[in-house]
Amino acid sequence: MKNPALSVRDLSVFIGDQAVVDRVSFDLYEGEVLALVGESGCGKTKTAEAIMGLLARDVKNRRTGSIRLGEQELMSMGEAEMRRIRGREISMVFQEPMTALDPVFSNGQQLAQQFRRHRGQSRSQARDSAAEMLTRVGIQDPERIMRSYPHQLSGGLRQRLIVAMAMACRPRVLIADEPTTALDVTTQAQVLEQMTKLGREIGTAILLITHDLGVVAQYGDRALIMRRGKLLENQPVKDLFAKPENPYTGSLIAAARELST
Predict the structure, then answer these.
(1) Secondary structure class of 133 (helix, strand, coil)
(2) What pTM value is reported for the model?
């Protein structure tokens, strides 16, 4: 089997003396969509923040274990080193796109900056690359979107813009933390379809954090089930729904099916 794009071993995250993530281990492979599933407060977002090096750096927060991006050990990196790889080798899409966009700059400026900073492109090259990337995430009128500002876009267009920014440099890994929570069902499906399709096209491994088992069934290749900071299950999506290994997973699936009827 090929080497994983991301390998997490015995990852724990502590807030004070409380382990909010407890010895989590998993691998994520090129072009794969791995769904991390669990109820609110189970440790999904803390896992993502630990991988990205975004945990608050103070005595109340600490992490242990190993996080390898290819051959690079992220746990031993300082903030300056992490800044160099964020956006280029590992990216993240957050729940609320407005927190990741600067209202002062046009959408085109913000997207083009990714190509200039991480790929060394000229201003005109970056603009062309930005327009192409917007097209690839399903935006029909990229020139208009690039001239406009974040507040002038709908939630769905803002989230597509964020996906375009996160995927601009063809990162090895993309972490998507509940990326469509604030969107209507139709727009949610469109954004997820474009994101996962693009990931497979360019070989980006996607860690998709969600509480929605319908999303898992439609877009995931494998699934991790998390509860109270621990991983209870790690198996292909088709096997997860056909024969869950943990009773908690079975109860989640039953509840989801009851709600859908």
Answers:
(1) helix
(2) 0.93
Q: What is the pLDDT of residue 110?
A: 95
The sheet with strand 230-236 has its strands ordered as 90-93, 173-177, 205-210, 33-37, 222-227, 230-236
At 39-82, the pLDDT tens digits run: 889 999 999 999 999 987 765 778 999 999 999 999 999 999 99
Q: Hey, is 61 helix, strand or coil?
A: strand
SS3 of the chain: helix, strand, coil, percent, to 5 = 45, 25, 30
pLDDT for res 260: 67
Is-contact 166 48, C-beta < 8 A? no
Tokens at residue 116, please? 């200039």
Q: What is the largest CA-CA distance in the chain?
A: 56
C-alpha distance from residue 110 to each of 30, 120, 130, 171, 204 (Å): 27, 15, 9, 17, 21
- CB burial readout 9-41, b (16+ within 10 A) else e: eebbbbeeeebbbbebebbbbbebbbbbbbeee
- φ, ψ (nearest 5 deg) of residue 126: -65, -40
CATH code for the domain defined by 6-236? 3.40.50.300
Residues of the chain with pLDDT under 50: none
pLDDT of amino acid 225: 97
Quickly list H helices, the chain: 44-52, 79-85, 107-119, 123-136, 142-147, 155-167, 185-202, 213-219, 237-242, 247-260
